[in-house]
Each structure stands twice: as C-alpha cells, then as structure tokens.
Design brief:
Helices cover 30% and strands 22% of the residues. It contains 10 helices and 11 strands. Strands 1, 2, 3, 4, 5, 6, 7, 8, 9, 10 and 11 form an 11-stranded mixed β-sheet that branches. A hairpin with a 6-residue loop joins strand 3 and strand 4. The protein is globular.
C-alpha cells in the first residue's frame, strides 16, 4: 500500500507533490473546471499544476492504489456491490499535442479507455469509492487474428473477468461481494472462471443454448410469474418526465452450454446460473417496454430474492451517472486542455472528485440513494 504521509491523491515521492495533488483536487471541486489556467488561479499556480502532472513520479497506478486503500477501509465488514463498466474518452477535434494516446473508438480520433470498479454498500446503496480502474489505449499498428480465433486473454473483453478477479483480490474483508455488469459482460468465460468469494449479476445479451436442449430466453417465457414490482424508468430524452413501470418477475435455474466460439478449452462444458427476467406489463403506446434478463450466480428461491436481484442490478446505474458527469454534464474531461498521458491522471482525479460524498453533484446523489424496497421504486 502506498505510504499515506500526505496527499489526497498520493505521496508521489515528495511531500510537495503530494500537497499540489491535494490542492488540485480541492481546486477542481471548487471550480468544477479542468481548465489549468482557472485551476491555478495565478501564473505560479498554473505552472505548479503543469509541473505536477508532468512529473514522472505522478502516476495513475499510485493514484489508484491510494484511492483504493480508502475504499477498502470503508468496505470492511459491509456487503458490497461492485459496478464495473467501460467509457471511451474521445478527443475528437482536440487531438493536437495528444501524445501518448491511441485511436479512440472511431479509429481516428485520439483517446483512451477507462474501466473503473466502483464499490457500493448494498444495504445503504451509498457509493464508497473507487476500487480500481483499468486504463488503456489501442495500438492500430497491431494486426490481430479474427475475433473468434482469439482467446479472451487477447481481447479487450478480458477486462470484465479481470474486474471480477480484482474485486475478489481486494475485498477480502467485505462481508460479501457481488459484481454487476451490463450486456458487454455476457461472456461465457467470465461465468466459467468466476473467482471464489464473488457472485455475479450480468444482463444477458445472447440467447444462449441450454443443456436442456432449449434456449435461455425461451426457458424464461415458460416459467410462472413469481411477483410484480414497480420500477421507475428514467427520462430518455429532453422533455421526458420518466414514468413508473410495472414489471412481472420470473426466475429459475439454468445450465448454460459452452458456446461453439469464443471459449477456452479449459472452460467447462456447462455452467450453472440463475436467470431472473423482468418484463413490463402493459407499457404505454410508443414507449419501449422494459425487459431485462439477468444472469446471476445467486440462488433465487422466492419472490423477495428475485426482487433483490433487480435492486442490486439497478445499483449499476451509479457508474452510468459517473460517466455522464465525467464527460458531458459535469467535468467535461474530453474538453480538458491537459495533453497526452497526463489526461489519464486527470481522469482518475476527476473520478475521485465525483465520488466524494461531500462534493457530489446533486444530479448524481450517490450518498443519498434510497432502497426501492424502503421508499422509492428502482430506476431504469
């Protein structure tokens, strides 16, 4: 663990650099800006920030280790949900002097990718902090074999498995750990290689074959309804007030068959999971019906357990709101004047700032989330 003699973001080998890092976070919090001139306040302050970000000892790994240490201390003894997801930081139209980066998702603009793990208390639904993050750039000069011929270790999708492994490695003092992912996380090897001590909840993207000679989606359609519940659907466009949807829940055990492509020979031929389906009843005209199929390693024996899977999956929305605040509604990281690899460090610092429970924008409200089973329905 990084020695915590000083510094909000880290020590960086020198107390003076630690102090500048702490001041940088406070200035970002106070101004809501990533413009170096505004953050510095004076020419001397501006130069101090530039020197700090350019110092070889100021690294993303030390920032992550420092912030993770605080999160782990808060997570001790708690039931933890780990939300993981990926965001692209794209500097389209602002690529000048962006050395040290690679092509973004469009294959043209400069950018990088960040895959954070956010720890959430499953009882209070408060975000505890940043657990870890994988930050990478693409190299368009590397020729790769066709996707189906590559092992998961040679694909960017390995990040989902590594995220679960990292959660298991770090959260040894938590009472329980559930890692939650969206449809990109629907990867057979992630289910087959789930680390011990970690449960999964993943939104299904593929109608997988089952050992019972049927398909995943067809099996849920044949099950009886367990219960109904209300889910708050978030606004999907400007002027949309949102709505409350009534969904029917079905749940049961499933045995996934190993797919014909995209697996390792060491993966077992079958993996036992539980499927929980939430399907909206009588949706309004011209509205897309709410329909989730969630694969989990948690046993679901009754209606209350099925409802709790929905609640835990909804906590993943915390990371979606983090990305929105990081890029568009709040910090506007993609418009920062910080160049090259320094922008990665700024990205980590911004995530920390946004997750601070004493300075979170009111639109996110991480520290005040309420359980759908105490007062409010879960939000979709």
């Amino acid at each position: 663990m990084v020695e915590q003699r000083a510094g909000t973001l880290g020590y960086f080998g020198d107390a003076r650099r630690a102090a500048v890092g702490t001041d940088l976070i406070e200035r970002v919090t106070a101004t809501g800006s990533l413009v170096i001139r505004k953050l510095g306040g004076t020419r001397a302050g501006e130069l101090a920030i530039h020197r700090f970000l350019a110092a070889p000892s100021v690294t993303c790994p030390e920032m992550l280790e420092t912030l993770s240490g605080r999160t782990l201390a808060a997570a001790t003894g708690r039931r933890i949900v780990v939300a993981q997801d990926t965001s692209e930081i794209n500097f389209a139209g602002r690529a000048a002097n962006r050395r040290g980066l690679g092509p973004a998702g469009d294959g043209i603009s400069a950018g990088f990718f960040i895959h954070p793990l956010i720890a959430i208390d499953s009882e209070t639904e408060a975000v505890l902090g940043l657990l870890d993050a994988h930050i990478w750039t693409r190299d368009d000069a590397i020729e790769t074999a066709p996707r189906r011929q590559r092992a998961i270790e040679d694909k960017e999708s390995i990040r989902w498995l590594r995220g679960a492994e990292r959660a298991a490695e770090l959260l040894t003092d938590a009472a329980s750990v559930v890692v939650v992912g969206d449809r990109e996380n629907d990867i057979y090897s992630c289910f087959a290689r789930r680390p011990a001590g970690v449960d999964l909840i993943v939104r299904a993207a593929q109608d997988r074959a089952l050992a019972a000679d049927t398909s995943l989606f067809a099996s849920a359609a044949a099950w009886p309804e367990r219960t109904q519940m209300l889910v708050k659907v978030s606004p999907r466009r400007v002027g949309d007030p949102g709505r409350i949807a009534t969904v029917a829940l079905r749940a049961g055990p499933v045995m996934l068959k190993r797919p014909r492509h995209g697996f390792a020979k060491t993966d077992p031929e079958t993996v036992a999971m539980t499927l929980v389906e939430a399907r909206e009843i009588d949706p309004p005209a011209n509205e897309e019906p709410l329909h989730w199929r969630l694969l989990t390693t948690i046993e679901v024996d009754d209606a209350d357990a099925a409802r709790d899977i929905i609640r835990l999956y909804r906590l993943r929305w915390r990371i979606e709101e983090l990305f929105r605040a990081l890029k568009s509604d709040g910090m506007r990281l993609e418009e920062t004047q910080v160049h090259g690899n320094r922008s990665k460090s700024v990205g980590v610092a911004c995530i920390f700032r946004l997750l601070r429970r004493d300075s979170v924008p009111s639109s996110i409200g991480y520290g005040t989330a309420t359980s759908p089973f105490r007062s409010n329905p879960p939000t979709a």
